[in-house]
Amino acid sequence: MLKMIWTNCFFFLLLQQQHHQKRYAISSLYSTLVDLFHSRSSKPSKSELVRESDAVPSKPKVTTLEDALNLFDEMLQRRPLPSVVRFNQLLGQLAKLKYHSAVISLNKTMCVLGIASDAYTLNIIINCYCHLKQAGVSMSVLGRFFKLGLQPDVTTFNTLINGFVLGEWSG
């Protein structure tokens, strides 16, 4: 009966979608709900580890913004979703290519879809806001560190200091 309820709920939500982005949110919601009721070991089996390592290259090669957006979409369509480490690699490469606004936008998409941020993700976001001369906004990201129970590290504080010094921060 529970399976029938979930199936009906999923198809109802699927019929309600109007945009491409909503499909990702519904798929993510459905997979999260299925994972809650699916019984499996918390420790991945050897075949699962091999499958995940074969599915995504160790470090994605991104040279353009279009490549990055395509890879991001591919990563969102994978089941199970890649770990946050893979998303961090993509965001880090985009930041090195100086697509700071795109990095912030992709991070917001990750948050909407329920992909948890870690300290490395937040450091990338702080760095992007500092490069966009929005050091004040980067302080709110520091607040997210504390809200998530994460410990800021030396990289976090160095990035903030550089953002304040170089970013003409006016308080």
Describe, in plain words, how this protein is organized in 3D.
With about 170 residues, the chain is an all-alpha fold. The protein folds into two domains: about 40 residues; about 110 residues, Alpha Horseshoe (Serine Threonine Protein Phosphatase 5, Tetratricopeptide repeat). Helix content is about 70%, strand content about 0%. It has nine helices and no strands. Helix 7 packs antiparallel against helix 8. The longest helix is centred in the first third of the chain and has 18 residues. The chain is globular and about 40 Å long. The termini are far apart. InterPro entries: PPR_rpt, TPR-like_helical_dom_sf. Belongs to the PPR family. P subfamily.
CATH class of the largest domain: Mainly Alpha
Q: Give me the secondary-structure category.
A: mainly alpha
| Tally of individual domains | 2
CATH homologous superfamily annotation of the largest domain? Tetratricopeptide repeat domain
Proportion of beta-strand residues: under 5%
Keywords: Repeat, Signal
Pfam families: PPR_3
InterPro entries: PPR_rpt (IPR002885), TPR-like_helical_dom_sf (IPR011990)
Protein name: Pentatricopeptide repeat-containing protein
